[in-house]
Amino acid sequence: MLSECDPLVVVFSDSSYLPLLQLWVRRVNELGVRRLQVYCLDNCTSDWCSSKGIASVSMKWNGDLCDLWVQRIRVFSALAAAGEEFIHSDIDAMWIRNPLQAGSARDSAEDLLFSQGTVWPPDIHDQWGFVLCCGWFWAKPSAAAQRFFEALETDVQRTGDDQVSVNRLLAAQQVRWSHSRQGEYQRTFGDRDVQCWSHVIRGQAGSLSIALLPQREFQRLPDDPEQVVVKHYLTPKNCAQKLTAFRAWGLA
Hints:
This protein is α/β, with parallel strands linked by helices.
């Protein structure tokens, strides 16, 4: 049963991705998500949200991808500072089941819960055997999470890449993971093996607690269809090409 105390689900979009946003919003609404906020990167997207009665915030964006990562971290930092529990989802992270009702994320109490990425950044993959993905994560309203997002605000301006900053900052803080480097199983990406587990992997970096959610549930790479909660498969950046891929997978 969902309630007004559920996390706020946030998503970012501009008008070039509006068809995908429409699909994504329809899917999460069907799953019972009601606390949703779209961060609109242009007036067309803002107007569409207004016409549908969808809560939205207009942002000024210069069209540069690095600027978007900086803007997103500022939003996350502001939400954390306001004591807001939130889930960030890319609009191409298609929800198959509601993570508040199914899967391991709902039972994890860590400050930050991350889906698993592939191998970027490669230096962290070399070190851990996996990386954290910024395309789907859940942030709890804790002082430790707030401090982490404040540090990210500064670091992402230097790196121009939020996922690079997230992973390298945690590595620099000497996060301790509750696992050996060898996973239960591996998925191949390019010439690298991605270490995977069927359960949550937990980490601690000072006072900050982190969870790596199972790849089988939050799938960046195709995996067990019976376990999937969110499909965030790698697709081209073009909206039309993404929709074509989603149709082939039965997601659109």
